[in-house]
Amino acid sequence: MWLNPRNPQLNKNGELHHLLTLEGLPAEILRQILDTARSFVGVTEREVKKVPLLRGKAVFNLFFEPSTRTRTTFEIAAKRLSADVINLAINVSSQSKGESVLDTVANLSAMQADMFVVRHAASGAPHMISQHVGPDIHVINAGDGRHSHPTQGLLDMFAIRHYKKDFTQLRVAIVGDILHSRVARSQIHALTTLGCPEIRVIGPRTLIPADIRTLGVQVYHDMKEGLKDVDVVSMLRLQNERMRGALLASGQEFYKYYGLTDDKLALAKSDAIVLHPGPMNRGVEIDSSVADGQQSVILPQVSFGIAIRMAVMSIVAGN
Amino acid sequence: MKIHIKNGRLIDPKNQIDTISDLFIAAGKIVAVGQKPEGFHANRVIDASQKIVCPGLVDLSARLREPGFEYIATLESEMDAATAGGITSLACPPDTDPPLDEPGLVEMLKYRARNRHKARVYPIGALTAGLKGVQLTEMAELRDAGCVAFSQANVALQDNQVLFYAMQYAATFNIPVWLQAQDASLARNGVAHDGAVATRLGLPAIPVCAETTALAVILILAKATGARVHLCRLSSFEAIEMVRVARREGARITCDVAIHHLHLSEMDIGYFDPNCHLIPPLRAQRDRDALRKALADHTVDAVCSDHCPVDDDAKQIPFSEAEPGATGLELLLPLTLKWAEEDEIPLSRALSRVTSDAAHILGIDAGHLSVGAEADVCVFDPERYWTVGPKTLMSQGKNTPFSGYELKGRVLYTLVGGQIAHELPQ
Fold first, then answer.
1. CB within 8 A of B185, min separation 6: which ones?
2. CB distance A215–B319 less than 8 Å?
3. Searching chain B, which residue's CA lies closest to the CA of residue A209?
4. CB-CB under 8 Å, A23 with B317
5. B59-65: average pLDDT
6. In Å, how far is A122's CA from the nearest CA of chain B?
7. A159 and A294 housed in the same domain
8. Which of A23, A158, A299, B132 has the fewest Cβ atoms nearer than 10 Å?
């Protein structure tokens, strides 16, 4: 086996081979990705937005779950690295009748794929795929179930570092549906690795998973208390279907207690920044005046996302 | 056929024997222990020096996958696996396809199993028709066809009125009801224990209260109906405590745990190992420690293999979609020995949990080496190491969290009714 059994995303030399989760990645690798991404921000602002780092490589976007934004940014990132990009949106229902995930992957590997960008509704699917591909193929997780969304977590770290510089002085609050959020988990792992001393998760008890404290966070159920003096507020998307089940009463009540409004944001530090992975539900988890306000860095996040995905793809490919 | 097993360390928990002694078998029965009967001329002498001779194991839950799931495993392969694991009697749950809810199906299974001359098969009948939880099965007829108890397997009975009536009806005929305590709604969509690992990996969770609420209902209904209830596969510290309390208050209940749950915890899921997707879920270390202690102090009566062969295709998919279950027939003995060694449990007491205590729950005359009893015997080498893997397992199910483990304790001979049903190739 060419991978490190204790950390199946690193090769024997400790270099990034797959990107499956931010959990367990050394801080040097996180910083390497962030630094590389910074150099790519320049590229995306140039007239000719291409570098030849992945010329001749085939990147397969393997989306078992629908996504527009993430798939598009991966596609743009791969094209800016001069890779050939093949987009596959796999209808999960037709899949359950026929080919298994691993058969799909084996077939695409036979078409000389160099990299798979995988999104799947089941936690752990990219891990499983990474265990069944050849040694020259790289797997990048583009979001799996509730587990991980590492490139989103990285672009959030990029944004935080861009605006706040030093992680070791920060207080960060993550607000909303922690239970179902792969973004929250990725942010928590990255922040703890990068030395953030205080991470708070805020939400009703139905949306905070068991034993979350073992990840190194503090739990708040009162948003006003939880936002006090924080430097970064990371809002999470609340899926519409959550409001139809028994986890929540209504969108209105959620907004009243856990939606980010100007008066709640005023409890954070005056220079606090607001993050959101998008797409936003205005008036459910965030008020428009906050989303479009001075402290919001939600749009810059999107452009950082391209640079981060370029960095990840070029690093796993060995550049 | 007359067999003389000599010089072995004879451990017969029920008769409180643990000594170097000889065993004499003739016409399918044990004819003497220790002293050779007059005029006994063995056709076969088995030298068991440095080996342990014990009653054949009694397994309270082994899925043979027949009828209905022959593509996963066949009766032949799993019966071979049972005797390779020293098991001479086994109970099979009713979740076959179709479920064991008609006497004809039960008779056919018993007939097919008998023709194999391997382990004795004791079918557990379906408590409700098709396990659907609506209509009771003909329990008395099914009992006459060979069912020793009735259960819903892993399919929770969601309607408490049906459960109440089922227990009353079973109690009418004094037939035991075997139930797994897992509330279907609280466990809905869940695939892992509601703890740190599920939170870290983002796996939909099954809280402990899914077990304890269902257990509370079962205990209350058992008391109300007077039914003989056996609780299958307890998994949590809290459930064990509830059983202790109920026992102290005089409840007529027995219970078991699965062998996997004595050794593994949620931590073993690692990076989404689908072999650790089990029902009930592997819980926290505190729960595992409680199960081990409860089995030692007899709060838990028996440990079973919970054998559940799954084909590769059903495991090579993401954890939450993978079919739950693991192979276990050939691991029951070595893993019981491992528990005994690690927790310093006397061997005789440990073996009773897979022989006489399990037989008692099944209500069968087995699991002991008394003179006159059926000669169901296991001879094993307690010091022999072997590596768990596709090559060493006879079961068609190769899926186990213990794949690659080196385990101590290997079965050399298994006798069923005085016939050698398994002999480890030299």
1. B158
2. no
3. B199
4. no
5. 95
6. 6
7. yes
8. A299
CA distance B62 to B59: 7
A143 and A154 belong to one structural domain? no
Is pLDDT of B374 > 60?
Answer: yes
Q: pLDDT per residue over A210-247, tens digit each?
A: 999 999 999 999 999 999 999 999 999 998 777 778 89
Q: How far is A182 from chain B (nearest CA, A)?
A: 7
pLDDT in tens, B219-249: 999 999 999 999 999 999 999 999 999 999 9
| The predicted structure's pLDDT at residue B284 | 98
Q: Report yes or no: A210 at the B interface, CB cutoff 8 Å.
A: yes
Q: What percent of chain A has pLDDT over 90?
A: 78
What is the average pLDDT across B10-27? 98
pTM of the model: 0.94
Q: Choose among A124, A78, A125, A83: nearest CA to A104.
A: A125
Amino acid in position B14: K
Examine the domain organization and report whether A158 and A74 are in the same domain. no
User: Residues of A with CB below 8 A from B198's CB?
Assistant: 209-210
The Cα–Cα gap between B206 and B190 comes to 5
List the domain range (segments joined by +) for residue A132.
3-149+303-316
| Residues of chain A with C-beta less than 8 angstroms from the C-beta of B188 | none
Contact B324, B269 (CB under 8 A): no
Question: What is the identity of the amino acid at A191?
Answer: L
Are B65 and B48 part of one and the same domain? no
Q: Enter the tokens of residue B380.
A: 């094993």
- Check: complex ipTM more than 0.90: yes
**Residues in CB range of B267: below 8 A, 6 or more apart:** B197, B285
Q: Which domain holds residue B39?
A: 2-53+373-385+407-423
Whether residues B7 and B104 share a domain: the answer is no
Q: B178 with B39, same domain?
A: no
B306 is catalytic: yes
pLDDT in tens, B84-120: 999 999 999 999 999 999 999 999 999 999 988 899 9
Which one of the listed residues B18, B80, B301, B306 is annotated catalytic? B306
Residues B36 and B170 in one domain: no
Instruction: Report chain A residues whose CB lies below 8 A from the CB of B321.
Output: 122
